[in-house]
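Lab manual, section 2.4: Encoding a predicted structure.

Procedure: take the sequence of the chain (388 residues), apply the prediction step described in section 2.3, and record the output as structure tokens. A sample record is shown.
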Amino acid sequence: MDVTALAESPTGRLVKAPQGYWAFAPAPLPRQVDLDNSLVYLLSEADRALGMLAGIGRTLPNPYLLISPFLSREAVVSSRIEGTQASLSDLFLFQAGQERSGAPADVREVANYVSATHYGVARLADLPLGLRLVRELHARLLERVRGGDQAPGEFRSVQNWIGQPPTYALEDAVYVPPPVSEMADALHDWERFLHETLTMPPLVRCALMHYQFEAIHPFRDGNGRLGRLLITLYLCANKHLTQPLLYLSAFFEAHRQEYYDRLQAIRVSGDWANWLAFFLSGVVSQARDGAERSRKILDLREEYRERLLRAKGTASAQRLLDALFTRPALTIRGAQHMLDASYITASRAVAVLAEAGILLETTGARRGRVFVANELIRVIDETLPGDQ
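Recorded output:
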């Protein structure tokens, strides 16, 4: 860690551990941030783009037509930032009960991200976003995956750090978060910041919340994934989103070095303005991406419905079609469960979708066949201009 650069930090202080290394203890978050004209304009653009995306979600009879595809993509991208190799297809096959060889551990990490997000959104109905929910989410993220031996759901009791190749050793660390002795106060201030009555715009507050969580790095592992997940949960908790449709991981991944540089600039010089500009630009980019991706997904759904009408598809096939947007890979047993119908009814519905070119059987086997909606997966996964 560049101790010299942090020696005069206006947003924290250096702390020397008994073992001789230096760590950074972030100061409490500011309760007021001055916005210049360019930031005010960018905030307005972000609010407008986010409102458009939220409006799309509100118009759908079943918002999970978009929630599930968006969340699945976010889980893959967020986990990929941490080094996993699982693809979107791997995730859908895993959810269908068919793990591909080569990445079972990675794909479980991705599936855990999906599960933790669903859990968090549901939990907000009876629990405020705070330290208790953060611990619960962390436990679900690390359940039975890499890092599962690093005290899931418990704040760290040892020092951690963000390493640097090739050694990733403490002495080569890029950043050393506060020691345990300083961490509790920082966490409690972070939680107070979430709940205090402030005049600060929600998106600005969200940007500060995310920075501070990353600066505290309160768990031994999984901080990055959880920090990104908290952005969406914060916006849902504060009614800035009615559905979890906005995710910033694709933007952070596409601008990874700038992301790290902007966080570091806050620690070195208190440069909140450029961090806010970066964060709000990400909201604009990903909200517009979400709106465009929504259009493509809903257009594909309409095309599929027309195919079924021409094929005189059964009512069960129509119901299974909508279910496909939550699980684009399935077995007949899976379809039976999704339809709550007999095996024969589910088998016929799957056959209709296959005949219409919506599903493709991928195994060539007689038993345990897996059917995949490849067109839908391509639309969910394709790179749009907002991802650049």
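Check your result against the sample. The first helix runs from residue 3 to 6.
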